[in-house]
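Action item from last meeting closed. Structure (99 res):
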């Protein structure tokens, strides 16, 4: 009886193919550990446009968490536009009070 054997190595995908190339600067800020023991802690973080050093900047005035009751149709309308609906409500309220 004859079987079709496939070359597994040729047909498998390498998950590293989608990974971005690391730059020297990325290696400089990365945490270095051996066996779970941190040898050198990280000195920065990767931002949307590459390497950013230090802690992310804080807002001048942090937003306040509040409990607010809204009509269901208002919430549904903002949620219908997808992620970021709470920020859009905040922007609508800012416009309504003239900010």
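Sequence:
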């Amino acid at each position: 009886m004859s079987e079709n054997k496939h070359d597994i190595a040729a047909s498998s995908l390498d998950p590293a193919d989608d990974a971005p190339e690391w730059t020297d600067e990325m290696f400089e800020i990365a945490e270095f550990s051996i066996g779970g023991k941190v040898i050198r802690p990280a000195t920065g973080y990767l931002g949307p446009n590459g390497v950013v050093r230090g802690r992310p900047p804080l807002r001048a005035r942090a937003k306040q968490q509040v409990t607010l009751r809204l009509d269901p149709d208002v919430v549904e309308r903002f949620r219908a536009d997808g992620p970021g609906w709470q920020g859009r409500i905040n922007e609508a309220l800012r416009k309504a009070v003239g900010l």
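Note appended to the action item: The chain has one domain: 8-96.
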